[in-house]
From TrEMBL, chains A, B:
This is TetR/AcrR family transcriptional regulator. Keywords: DNA-binding, Transcription, Transcription regulation. It comes from Dactylosporangium salmoneum. PROSITE patterns: HTH_TETR_2 (PS50977). InterPro entries: Homeodomain-like_sf (IPR009057), HTH-type_TetR-like_transc_reg (IPR050109), HTH_TetR (IPR001647), Tet_transcr_reg_TetR-rel_C_sf (IPR036271), TetR_C (IPR011075). The keyword Cell wall biogenesis/degradation does not apply.
C-alpha cells in the first residue's frame, strides 16, 4: 500500500504525464475488476502507487476521473486516417482486436455494461460513443470520395461487420489461444478487411 | 415480498413448467442487474414471486440455478436448421439482435463479462460456448455441402461478421431507437445476411 506523497500535493508543481498515465490505467483496471460499485479514489490511488492527494490534485471527483479514463480507454477512431479505406479499416479492426483480446477486455466489456447507467458519467460516455460513430462513418465516406468503394455501399453494415467482427473474433478466441492472436492482431485484421471489401466491391448478380 | 409457499415444497408434487420459466427469467434478470455478487436464491425467489422452498426443490445451489438459466438465456444455435444457409444465418442474426437490443441486453453483456470467472459456473459456460461454436460452424458446413457457398469460404470470418455484426448493430443503436429495431429484427437480419453472402459468393478479382 502506497503512503501519501507529500511532494505531489505541493501547489504549482508541474504535473508528471507519466503519473497521469499510471492513474488512468489504474482507474481502468479498478473499474474493470469491480465496476462502479468498486470504484473508489483510494483503491485507484493504491493501484497506481500514488497518494490520494495526487489523485485529488488532478481529479476532484471519481466521476471526473472515470470519464477521463474512459476517453483514454476507448478505441481512438478519430485519430485513424492512413490515407486509404483499407488502411483505416485495418487500423480500426486492429484496435478492436487489441482491446477485446488483451488484458483490457474486462474493462471494455464492463464499459458496455455499466458506463451508460452511471450518473455523471453516462452523458459523457454517450457523447463519446456518438463521436466515435461519426468518426467511423467519416472513414467510409472518405473512401467513397476517393473512389475506393461505390457510393451505394451500406456504411452501417460495413462498420457493424468490421467492428463487430473484430470484437466477436477476440471474444470467441479461447483464453489459451489469445496470446497467439494478440501477438499478431494486424494479420487477422487484414483478412477481415479483405473479406468485407470483397462484399462491397465485387459485382452484384453472380454467386449461388 | 413473496411468502413461503408450503404446497410447492410437498414431495412428489409435479413441477409446474410455468414456474420453472418464471424462476429462470428472474434468475437472468437478477444476474443482469447485480451480477454474481448480487445473485442470491432469496432475491431470485422474490423476483419470481415464489417461495424459497420452490427454488430449492428445483435447484440445490445458486451455481446450479445460474448454469441452467445461462443455458436458457443464450442464443439457441443448436436448434437452428431451416434447410438453407441464408435461412439459418437470418435466424442466428435475428436471435443476436433480439438478445442485445431487447431487455435481455444487460444480462447478455454481463454473461460475457462474468460467467467465465464464477467458480462452479465457468466450466459449464465454457462448455456451452464451445458447443455453440461447433453448432454455428455446422450451419456453414451444411451450406457448403448443399453448394450454397464455395468450399473455400472462411467459416470463421463469415460467422464472426454475422454474429458480431448483429451484436454491434444492436449495441450501437441509440436507446431511443431500439424499439424500432426490436419491432422488426428480421428485416435488418436479412440485409446483413445479403451483405455477407455477397462477400462469399461474388467472384474474386473485380472491384476497387
Amino acid at each position: 500500500m502506497a503512503t501519501m506523497s507529500a511532494s505531489a500535493a505541493v501547489p504549482g508543481r508541474p504535473r508528471d504525464p507519466q503519473v497521469d498515465r499510471r492513474i488512468i490505467q489504474a482507474a481502468l483496471d479498478v473499474f474493470g475488476d469491480g465496476g462502479w460499485a468498486g470504484f473508489a479514489m483510494e483503491t485507484v490511488a493504491r493501484r497506481a502507487g500514488v497518494g490520494k492527494a495526487s489523485l485529488y490534485l488532478r481529479w476532484s471527483t471519481k466521476e471526473a476521473l472515470l470519464t477521463d479514463a474512459l476517453a483514454a480507454g476507448l478505441v481512438r477512431v478519430s485519430d485513424v486516417d492512413t490515407g486509404t479505406l483499407r488502411g483505416d479499416m485495418v487500423e480500426l479492426a486492429t484496435q478492436m482486436l487489441e482491446l477485446y483480446a488483451g488484458p483490457s477486455s474486462r474493462t471494455a466489456l464492463r464499459l458496455n455494461l455499466e458506463a451508460g447507467t452511471i450518473p455523471g458519467v453516462a452523458e459523457h460516455y454517450e457523447a463519446m460513443r456518438a463521436a466515435q460513430v461519426v468518426a467511423a462513418r467519416a472513414i467510409v465516406h472518405r473512401g467513397i470520395e476517393r473512389g475506393e468503394v461505390p457510393a451505394t455501399v451500406s456504411v452501417t453494415l460495413l462498420l457493424d461487420t468490421l467492428v463487430g467482427g473484430a470484437m466477436m473474433h477476440a471474444l470467441s478466441t479461447p483464453p489459451g489461444k489469445r496470446a497467439i492472436l494478440t501477438a499478431d492482431t494486424a494479420s487477422h485484421a487484414r483478412r477481415l478487411v479483405e473479406f468485407l471489401m470483397h462484399a462491397v466491391t465485387a459485382p452484384v448478380g453472380s454467386g449461388a
